[in-house]
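Re: weekly structure request thread

Next one in the queue (70 aa):
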Amino acid sequence: MHNYNGNFFGMHGGSWIFWILIAVVVYYFLINNRAKNPNVDTPMEILKKRLAAGEITKEEFEKLKETLKQ
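Done, posted below.
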């Protein structure tokens, strides 16, 4: 049997804190990059593009625009 001296997989308390902090930092940067990505269209931009492309009529656009405002 292995003797871990009460430590989970041989890791000390300080190393758990280190890895938790690393995970938080990585998560933070992933969220910030996603929020700052200029390639992501808002729902209103998508709706305007669909109107411009002729996928929806002006009446459908107005109804959907009101739905988005709610």
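Residues 43 and 67 are 11 Å apart (CA to CA). The radius of gyration is 25 Å.
Next request, please.
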